[in-house]
Design a protein that fits this description.
The complex is a heterodimer of chains A (497) and B (156). Chain A has helices spanning 3-6, 21-48, 190-193, 466-470, and strands at 60-62, 71-72, 86-98, 104-110, 119-122, 126-133, 142-145, 169-175, 180-186, 199-205, 214-223, 226-229, 236-239, 245-252, 258-262, 266-271, 274-275, 287-289, 294-300, 308-312, 315-320, 356-369, 372-379, 382-383, 388-392, 397-404, 410-414, 419-424, 427-428, 435-436, 438-441, 446-452, 458-463, 474-479, 482-483. Chain A is mainly β and 497 residues long. Chain A is globular. Chain B contains 5 helices and no strands. Chain B is elongated. Mean pLDDT of chain B is 88; it is low at 150-156. Classes of the chains: A mainly beta (497), B mainly alpha (156).
């Protein structure tokens, strides 16, 4: 049916304008409606703009009502009187650099290279890192991914510090409490700076004998399409005698899951800086490493003198006596399920009687985010910044149910804590305690995780596919009584994601 | 308005051809990349810094055309149909719009249920055929009415 047929009286045969009072009223009504709709859309757009804001004012509250804030995040530091055991100065630069074995890229270096230098400490040592921004125009802040540092050292621009401007410096101090594999990266404009190289590895060795005679890092990163292993766009050879045990610390600094598998059996000996109890041989399966996550694997080279090929995302590490070749390793169809890997052990958390129980349901819908229309991520049905603020009290046992109702995998990363996986899709964990700080939650999956609130502060809990965090997939865990003086945006130009 | 209606319908039909070409380009480039030692994984698909292989552009083209351009064009066809005096134009346009929306939903669901890919391909042909029918019906109607006085087709 045409509009012309619907309103035959409003026009005459010559198409002249209608003159009746009714027609004028109809036009006024239509105009008013149009103005109302336009005004409504304008208000919705205006109110969705973020501008400068404090994380304190963000989101709707979950948990108890907040008490009067008594502690600033700036007070949550390591013992200032204790001298540092490990001192490092890292200079951050925005520059063009050559990937060894590959092409030059425009990106960021730290300590003159990307990845930056390995920071190595022994368990219990106090690490002091001085960050100097030499030329990163947007400013820089360093986050210690997986290290449960005091909140003031967490390196999140706009929450725990201001971004360090060009010419500025910032000192981070923390005790390396847990032995394991970690990494550091910028948490200012992180989606841009991490992807372009502002990152590096951090290893904390246990007190006493090293867990394996040969210990190698395998930091994975894609630089403008170039697959690298420890910063080189080429495979790596590890020259060891037959029958050697080699620990390979895989660090996935990319934006998506990496698969690791081998031509021979291997063991998963640690996840996200926590040892696996009772690891067994994995054969014909891969182990998946979430974006931001780490997995330590142990490879034993065959006694016959041949080498083992360890496949790491798009690169290989050939481990064996010099001059020997390693067999090819076709990609396995299945991956090891860490929910049932290794042997059970006490976690020290009474997950049956939590003090707080939170839901973190990830979805997606159309809406306005910072004035931009689009299809954005939601948390519990709400768009950023109307996402939950998870309030906890020091000493609480906290459980989270993280459910992914979207169609993409999300590597969820909680700062300042390690969580233990309790169950997935209602199936209880039966293997070694599976401790993580970066957990892949695939479409349709629901994980229950638990942790003890033992590190006061304001902590980001976000997706480590960093573009997703920019698209609103970030919430916070806030301890009772803690406040921050820092602002997102503002004069310091803080943009943590 | 019939010409506009017919033009949009031909445009939608043409986009089906673009879609087929774009996805073939994408998969062809990807297979070439894999053959030369490239690895396609989540780290690569989430990386936004550079073109990783020739033909990669085919995937975003397929996504944008199927998820945005075609639904908008099909919706526009429904709106334009109200102003054409072609019998059944609105119903055909609505049918095309439904097919296009179904096609997009199928596309987004392939990742979860790969067998949906079989229907996605067949439905693409349905979109093409219905778009061509829309275009030809409008064109035929325009020819049939060419002798009528111009005032009979005053637009609203």
């Amino acid at each position: 049916m045409s509009l012309r047929e619907a309103e035959p009286a409003t026009r005459d045969a010559g198409g002249r304008e209608p003159t009746g009072r009714g027609a004028v009223l109809r036009r006024l009504a239509a105009l008013s409606l149009l103005v109302l709709v336009a005004a409504g859309a304008g208000v919705a757009w205006w109110s969705s703009r973020l501008g400068t804001y404090s994380v304190m004012a963000m989101g709707h509250q979950h948990g108890s009502s907040p008490v009067v804030a008594t502690t600033s995040v700036t007070q949550l530091v390591a013992d200032p009187a204790r001298p540092a055991d490990v001192r490092v100065t890292l200079e951050a630069r925005q520059e063009r650099f050559v990937i060894p074995g590959g092409q030059a890229v425009d990106g960021y270096t730290i300590g003159g290279s990307s990845p930056g230098p390995v920071i190595r400490a022994r368990q219990g040592q106090l690490v002091e890192v001085t960050l100097v921004n030499q030329s990163v125009a947007d400013g820089v802040a360093l986050h210690w991914h997986g290290v449960d540092v005091p909140n003031a050292e967490d390196g999140v621009a706009g929450i725990t510090q201001d971004a360090v401007p060009v010419g500025g410096r910032h000192v981070y101090r923390f005790v390396a409490t847990d032995a394991g594999t970690y990494w550091y990266h910028s948490h200012q404009m992180s989606h841009e700076q991490v992807e372009r190289g502002l990152l590096g590895p951090l290893v904390v060795d246990p007190v006493g004998a090293p867990p394996a005679a040969v210990d190698r890092l395998a930091l994975l990163h894609l630089y403008a399409g170039q697959r690298t292993l420890n910063g080189r766009a080429e495979d790596e050879l590890v020259d060891v005698p037959a029958g050697s045990t080699v620990r390979v610390r895989v660090v996935n600094t990319d934006q998506g899951t990496a698969a690791v598998w081998s031509s021979g059996p291997f063991r998963v000996v640690a996840t996200d800086g926590h040892d696996v109890t009772g690891p067994t041989d994995v054969t014909g399966r891969s182990v998946l490493v979430a974006a931001g996550g780490r997995v330590d694997v142990e490879v034993r080279t065959p006694a016959d003198g041949s080498a083992t090929r360890l496949r790491l995302g798009g690169r290989s590490m050939v481990i064996g006596p010099a001059g020997t070749s390693a067999p090819d390793a076709p990609q396995p169809r299945d991956s090891v399920d860490l929910l049932a890997y290794g042997s059970p052990a006490p976690t020290g958390i009474d997950t049956a009687h939590p003090d707080r129980t939170f839901e973190y349901v990830i979805g997606r819908r159309f809406g306005l985010l910072d004035g931009r229309p689009g299809s954005w991520w939601t948390i519990n049905g709400q768009l950023f910044p109307d996402v939950p603020m998870f309030h906890v009290r020091l000493g609480d046992v906290v459980t989270f149910r993280i459910e992914n109702r979207s169609d993409e995998v999300h590597p969820m990363h909680l700062h300042g804590h390690h969580v233990v996986v309790v169950s997935r899709d209602g199936v209880a964990a039966t293997g070694s305690p599976w401790w993580v700080d970066s957990l892949d939650v695939r479409p349709g999956e629901a994980y229950e995780v638990a942790f003890v609130a033992d590190n006061p502060g304001i902590w980001s809990d976000h997706c480590h596919t960093l573009a997703h965090a920019v698209e609103g997939l970030v919430a916070h865990v806030m301890y009772e009584g803690v406040t921050t003086p820092y602002l997102i945006a503002g004069s310091a130009g803080n943009h943590p994601e | 308005m019939r010409k506009v209606y017919s033009g949009i319908a031909w445009f939608v039909a043409g986009l089906v051809v673009v879609q087929a070409a774009a996805i073939a380009l994408g998969f062809g480039g990807m297979m070439h990349f894999v053959d030369t030692g490239g690895v396609v994984d989540k780290a690569l698909t989430e990386s936004r810094t550079a073109s990783n292989f020739t033909g990669e552009i085919g995937f975003p083209i397929h996504g944008i055309v199927g998820g945005l351009v075609m639904p908008i064009a099909a919706l526009l066809l429904v709106l334009v149909s109200w102003f054409t005096k072609v019998r059944g134009a609105t119903w055909w346009a609505l049918g095309l719009f439904v097919l296009v929306v179904v096609q997009g939903s199928l596309g987004y669901s392939i990742k979860d249920v790969p067998f949906i890919g079989l229907v996605h391909g067949a439905n693409a042909l349905a979109v093409f055929v219905v778009a061509v029918v829309c275009a030809r019906r409008a064109a035929r109607s325009a020819r049939d009415r060419v002798a009528e006085p111009a005032t009979a087709d005053v637009p609203a």
